[in-house]
């Protein structure tokens, strides 16, 4: 289990390196949700998503000799970019294992940050197995996307900042893939506001965390077929699930159509470009699946190319 002190230590490492991202409000959103809503826009973070926080916290904690050998990560895109940026800032070099069908915008950005990309087939191959093997063969340090205490603590700084801006929240909403973001955020929220409700949001096709919480143990599913590519986890992380089963109150799901509606709303009414995975919290709010008086919603990322964004919104 991670604790508030771990997140506070991460915040000190990230001070002056990560962006303190803005919190937006919208009277239109408030009216639709029947609540005062505060939107934490991690689409303005370095690398376009919250993932930079955890990646930098982890890599900056490694010894110089380890960083010199290099870093390996597996990711569909946001963790890939985050690791590439953090490694470059810290004098290391990143090798990233990415699915062949990863969004082009994410692949190009990762390569642009100086990383070497190795591809695999997400439908027939295990990125965990390939990643472990590559790291061992090349002598690289594996930086996992969520199942690591330092990564979880780094992601928790999202909630630390949000509660500085909006300290009286009674509900905190965050996307759930592998569970690192909500593990870090729930740790902060439950420590600073013990009565707060923490609600996770998954795509309908990728409800592994909801199933796992209901079963009381980790449940494995097929690779989810959803537009939310950043939330295509097939089971919760071992470490993240240990945190989330204690600190997350509920996990709800949204359809791809509802995600597109949320992306459209954020673009039209709040002028925010948000990727599908980042929009699930707003989707749940607009669909009436989250209730409260003062709600904080984490918009986790904005890494969607112009062509893909237009394609999705035209559906």
Fold and architecture overview:
- It is a single chain.
- The chain has a 6-stranded mixed β-sheet with strand order 1-2-10-7-8-9, with helices on both faces. Strands 5-4-3-6 form a 4-stranded parallel β-sheet, sandwiched between helices.
- The chain is globular and about 55 Å long.
- Helix 5 links the parallel strand 3 (71-74) and strand 4.
- It contains 14 helices and 10 strands.
- Helix 3 crosses helix 8 (149-165).
- It is α/β, with parallel strands linked by helices and 315 residues long.
- The protein has helices spanning 4-14, 27-33, 51-60, 64-69, 78-89, 104-112, 127-138, 149-165, 180-192, 208-215, 238-247, 256-270, 280-286, 306-313; strands at 23-24, 36-41, 71-74, 94-99, 116-120, 141-142, 171-175, 197-203, 250-254, 294-299.
- The mean pLDDT is 96.
Query: How many β-strands, per DSSP?
Result: 10
Encode the helix/strand succession as letters: HEHEHHEHEHEHEHEHEHHEHHEH
Distance between the termini: 42 Å
- Poorly predicted runs: none
**How much helix, percentage-wise, in residues?**
40-55%
* Residue share in β-strands: 15-25%
User: Mind telling me the C-alpha Rg?
Assistant: 18 Å
Largest sheet: 6 strands, mixed
Structural class: alpha/beta
* Sheet with the most strands: spatial strand order: 1-2-10-7-8-9
**Number of helical segments with 4 or more residues:** 14
Summed over residues and divided by their number, the pLDDT gives a mean of 96
Shape: globular
């Amino acid at each position: 289990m991670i604790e508030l002190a771990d997140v506070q230590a991460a915040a000190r490492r990230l001070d002056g390196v990560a962006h303190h991202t803005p919190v937006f409000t919208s009277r239109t959103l408030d009216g639709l949700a029947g609540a005062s809503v505060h939107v934490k826009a991690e689409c303005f973070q370095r690398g376009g998503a919250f993932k930079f926080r955890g990646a930098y916290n982890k890599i900056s904690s490694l010894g110089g000799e380890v960083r010199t050998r290099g870093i390996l990560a597996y990711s569909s895109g946001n963790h890939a970019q985050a690791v590439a940026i953090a490694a470059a800032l810290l004098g290391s070099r990143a090798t990233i294992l990415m699915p062949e069908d990863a969004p082009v915008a994410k692949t190009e950005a990762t390569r642009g940050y100086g990383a070497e990309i190795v591809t695999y087939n997400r439908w027939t191959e295990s990125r965990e197995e390939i990643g472990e093997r590559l790291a061992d063969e090349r002598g690289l340090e594996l930086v996992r996307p969520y199942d690591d205490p330092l990564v979880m603590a780094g992601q928790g700084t999202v909630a630390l900042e949000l509660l500085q801006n909006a300290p009286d929240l009674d509900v905190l909403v965050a996307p759930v893939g592998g569970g690192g973001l909500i593990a870090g955020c729930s740790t902060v929220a439950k420590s600073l506001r013990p009565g707060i409700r923490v609600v996770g949001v998954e795509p309908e096709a990728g409800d592994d965390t909801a199933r796992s919480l209901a079963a009381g143990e980790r449940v494995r599913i097929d690779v989810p077929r959803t537009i939310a590519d950043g939330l295509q986890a097939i089971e919760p992380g071992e470490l993240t699930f240990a945190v989330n089963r204690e600190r997350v109150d509920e996990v709800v799901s949204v359809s791809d159509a509802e995600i597109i509606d949320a992306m459209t709303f954020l673009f039209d009414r709040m002028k925010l470009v948000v990727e599908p995975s980042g929009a699930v919290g707003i989707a749940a709010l607009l669909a009436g699946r989250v209730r409260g008086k003062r709600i904080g919603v984490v918009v986790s990322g904005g890494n969607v190319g112009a062509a893909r964004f237009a394609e999705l919104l035209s559906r």
